[in-house]
Amino acid sequence: MKIRICLGTCCHLMGGADLYNFLEEQLEKSNRDFELETPSCLDYCNQADYEAPIVEIDEEIHDDVTIEKLKNILNQE
Ligand code: FES
Hints:
By secondary structure, this protein is of the alpha+beta class. The protein is about 40% helix and about 15% strand. It has three helices and four strands; from the N terminus they run βααβββα. The mean pLDDT is about 90. FE2/S2 (inorganic) cluster binds next to helix 1.
């Protein structure tokens, strides 16, 4: 699984670093094989009205990603 958490200015201000720290902690506890990246922008910030970071998981973009939403996404994978 390849996970990219945007840490560009917009996403960082909306809690991107908190999301990254949460995810890193969760993935370390699990046995899942993953690749975690932190791009500086996923080119989505000008395309939508959103209030939480953008995350790309296996090339699929998810917007407004809160910790709760991320938990739900990962449980579906
Ligand atoms: S800063 Fe996150 S998509 Fe641009």
